[in-house]
Amino acid sequence: MASEFQRDKLVNMFRAFDADGNGYLDRSDFEALAERWRGLPRVRPGSELAARVDSVMLGWWDLLAAHVDTDGDGMVDLDELLAMVDLLPTMREAVAATAETVFDAVDENGDGRISPAEHRGLVDTWHGESVDVDGVFDHLDQDGDGYLDRPEFTGLWVQFWTSDDPAEPGNLLCGPVPTRR
C-alpha cells in the first residue's frame, strides 16, 4: 500500500499523465504522453528511438491495464494507479529499461550525459508544462560533476518509481514532490 509520500508523488504523476484531465488514465493518455516525448529533438519521426519511446510508454499502459485495472473497464483511476506502487519493486528490470529509453530521449546532444538543461526538458516533457526545478539538479548530481551519466540516471529513475524515502535524491527526478497541506 502506498505511503503518504508515495501517494503525493504519484498524484503528481497521475495529473501529468491524465492528458485530457478527465480523472482517469486510459490508452489515449499514454498515446498523448508518447506524443509529448516524440517532441524532443532526438526523438525524430520514424527513428528507432521514436519506436522505443512509443513501445515504452504504451507498454506501461499495457502493464497498468493488466495489473491494476481491476474492473477491466479500460480506465485506471488514482486508487488503481496507487496499487501499482506495490508491484513496481518487483518490476525493476522494466523500470530500468524505461530509464534507458528516457535517457536517450533527453540526452539532446548525444554526449552520454544529461545536463541541467536536459533535465529540465525531461521534467517539462513528463508534466506537459514548465515546472520549477530550481535547485533540484544539485540534489540529483551526487558526484557533483554537473551531469547525470547513464548509471546515475538509471539509479535515480529506479529510486523515483520505487522509493518510499523522501530523502533519496531520485524522488526529485521528475521535479519537486508537492505535499498535501
UniProtKB/TrEMBL annotation:
SUPFAM superfamilies from the UniProt entry: EF-hand
Pfam family, one: EF-hand_7
Superkingdom, taxonomy of origin: Bacteria
Sequence ranges assigned to domain EF-hand in this UniProt record: 5-40, 66-91, 128-163
Signal sequence extent: none
InterPro entries, per the entry: EF-hand-dom_pair, EF_Hand_1_Ca_BS, EF_hand_dom, EF_hand_pair_protein_CML-like
Claim: Transcription is one of the keywords in the record: no
Record keywords, A-Z: Metal-binding, Repeat
PANTHER family: EF-HAND CALCIUM-BINDING DOMAIN CONTAINING PROTEIN
Protein's name according to its UniProt entry: EF-hand domain-containing protein
Species this chain originates from: Streptomyces wedmorensis
